[in-house]
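lol so apparently i was supposed to do this last week
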Amino acid sequence: MTSDQSKEKKSLRQWEIEPPQMPHQEAKTRITNFDEVNLGYSEEHVMHEATRCMACKNPTCVAGCPVEIDINRFLEAVRNKDYRAAIRTIKEKNSLPAICGRVCPQEIQCQKGCILSKKGYPIEIGRIERFLADWEREHGVELPELPKPTGRCVAIVGSGPAGLTAAGDLALLGHEVTVFESLHEPGGVLVYGIPEFRLPKSIVKAEVDYLKRLGVTFQLNAFIGQLYTLDDLFEKGFDAILLASGAGLPNFLRIPGVNLVGTYSSNEFLTRVNLMRAYQFPDYDTPIIRGKTVAVIGGGNAAMDSARTSLRLGASKVCIVYRRSENEMPVRREEYHHAKEEGVEFKFLTQPIELLGDDQERVTTLRCIQNCLGEPDESGRCRPEPIDGSEFEFPVDTVIFAIGQRPEVPDGFGLDITAGRLIEVDTYTFDTSREGVFAAGDAVNGTSSLISAIASGRKGAVALDRFLEGSGNIDEKLAPQSEPEKCLGPGEGFATMNRHEVSCILPRERLESFCAVAGDMEEEAADYESKRCLQCDLRLKITPVKFWGNY
Ligand SMILES: Cc1cc2nc3c(=O)[nH]c(=O)nc-3n(C[C@H](O)[C@H](O)[C@H](O)COP(=O)(O)OP(=O)(O)OC[C@H]3O[C@@H](n4cnc5c(N)ncnc54)[C@H](O)[C@@H]3O)c2cc1C
Ligand code: SF4
Ligand code: SF4
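anyway here it is w/ iron/sulfur cluster bound
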């Protein structure tokens, strides 16, 4: 950073300082390849963001992260250029940071919680997390000390983020862990769903290799329910089973024409391209129809991934058809912007009603109806309502349905299933209806997010370990904690500091307008208030005094 930039930075308040842009491949280049779009922050970018952080006493960012990473502590380590301590702090709670740093929906999680987001730019927590994980991969991933084996064997069904996380946690508790995966590569959605240009497969492979170093065994091409039943697994000597089988069964619209040639579920389309490398045909033996005019139905990550993949396969026109408005789209915002830059078109408030085909049963036309937004439904989002007489159609040669997925639970499992076809578990113990069988991730919660699956995998591992008479303690302290202040009130005159009063507009003015009554707190005032904090948790942190009788 130049001295001018540094002066400018000091004259602005932290939330007004723009974070560095993520270096990326330009749109017109990237639609010609499958390489990663985002190139990652440099050390200078990371330091810029870490120094912008206000090191809040009560870091609201942490509550936004489903696994509650100690964000303040890892940013402190970054400021001290101790990247090893920073990544260890993250790994105390999240074993897949290179993946989360890339694809977590940070804008609605940790970064939404960041205090700076209330007025301006939040700290780019995810990008720093990605930098640290990549730094660790380049500088060598340290293996923690392995515990004494407990002699207990655990089977995990499914190798997505929930299964991988639980496998790591259970291996570190000393259990012998085998992961059964129906596909020929481990990683779940991370390898078959999310495309290479968002999440390189080499990163998922590195995480799987790390688990193998911890002693976890992977059995691939093993569909539990067909190859082995749950009874078989118990008979083979497994003491407990964790089902982390995800939600891989695609939903389709119930409209005429969904079976025409040229229609796909996003699951099938993405699996062919990502896992089976159809984009490298004929080097890889997987055929795929390379559509020229593609419509993708849906507004989530799978829809955006399918649309952007179609462009890279050579489509000249790709259109997302979404029944609600732009604001309701559940996609990560960055992916939406990238898709728009790449030339994906959007038809909002549009509902498909029929697919028409030619005499060879190939799809040729998508018929739709225009919607308007009505009252909010049970999800809290406005319900789309069709407008009579607004039907229209446009030509297509490929239609991809990306309207959600649900779990596929083999009947032979003999488990209780909810009305929504999810595996039913006790919310506290993660027990299913069969003793010794636990479940976690999307199979229990429905399609959610990567980090929610990780959080659920951790809870499942705790429950399963307790069932095996372990402590269920997966809390690790991999990096040093900062020393607490050992005095009551860090500043001079602490005992006489009065509360800072926020200025309010006069009662008369209040009655005449709907303006906020209380003004905002300035940075200096916030700093003053934080110094009045009593550090009530201090007595939990300082070493107890030893009296004579204790020696
Ligand atoms: C295309 C797409 C893009 C996404 N993008 C994002 C994103 O950007 N950010 C985000 O946070 N979330 C995203 N998600 C959601 C996120 O990836 C999932 O919520 C998460 O992967 C769920 O993890 P899981 O471990 O529960 O299941 P999964 O990842 O689905 O893994 C389950 C695994 O179990 C295997 N399996 C299933 N049944 C059996 C069986 N009977 N025997 C053996 N193995 C079995 C499956 O083959 C699979 O490998 C996306 C989802 C999709 C589909
Ligand atoms: S895991 Fe995801 S939500 Fe948590 S701090 Fe990292 S990027 Fe944010
Ligand atoms: S809330 Fe934002 S500013 Fe405060 S510690 Fe967390 S990242 Fe830093």
